[in-house]
């Protein structure tokens, strides 16, 4: 008898499984040892690793030309764990529980999870309804980027450098984090357009100045690994906010391969 179960593409879905594992492991650490900054540090790196796995699964699927409905659904299920629930628990246990009165922190964290789930559901609906080639833009901030903002900003609060940590935890900056989490939640379900960078591939060519800048960014990120993730993710968040006022030529230079022919805008953007 013929097997009716669908076959799945191994490598993209293996990356998605890595994403899910990182998110689940981060949640397990946060629940079993809440408030411990050493545990939180491991959980943060796991969430950031999940972001890397999430980037790789789509890149591999497109490289081999094997994007599938199964992969899309599996990816969304993994994303709600790694980029929805895990960052919400992280922010609650490390930040919100200390500065937001009573149970308000839980409601802020839940609001983030709720908006993230709605965004992923919208993504699947639009992807299923889309005809032709989809836009290279996301509608609303993608949930991996939102999780990256939360994880990288929280990383500043568990920096092993005592002076840096005391300055942030004891300063006024921590009071901005509940508002940041609410802002992220709203932007995820908004109609703001964020670049997916799907126009860039392993074959993309850049000028020598671009290459030098990329090498410097990598070197600075390694040297200041507790600060640069926040710079990168928060930079992406605010780039989406100011992007409508950025010249189209500049956006194309940043987001796409300039050597490829320019495509017309599609009516149905990615969710």
Task: Please give a structural write-up.
The chain has one domain (10-255): Four Helix Bundle (Hemerythrin (Met), subunit A). By secondary structure, the chain is an all-alpha fold. It has helices spanning 10-32, 37-64, 69-99, 104-129, 143-157, 162-170, 177-188, 208-223, 228-242, 248-255; strands at residues 137-139, 193-195. The chain starts with 9 loop residues before the first helix and ends in a 16-residue tail after the last helix. It is built from 10 helices and 2 strands. It has a two-stranded antiparallel ribbon with strand order 1-2.
Helical stretch count? 10
Q: Compute the separation of the termini in Å.
A: 39 Å
What is the 3D form?
globular
* Biggest sheet descriptor: 2 strands, antiparallel
Q: Which homologous superfamily in CATH is the superfamily?
A: CDP-alcohol phosphotransferase transmembrane (TM) domain
Fraction of residues in β-strands: under 5%
Can you tell me the CATH topology?
Four Helix Bundle (Hemerythrin (Met), subunit A)
Mean pLDDT across all amino acids: 84
Radius of gyration: 19 Å
Structural class: mainly alpha
Give the strand tally. Answer: 2
- For the record, the count of structural domains works out to 1
CATH architecture assignment name:
Up-down Bundle
Helices and strands, in order, run as HHHHEHHHEHHH
CATH class designation: Mainly Alpha
Strand order in the sheet with the most strands: 1-2
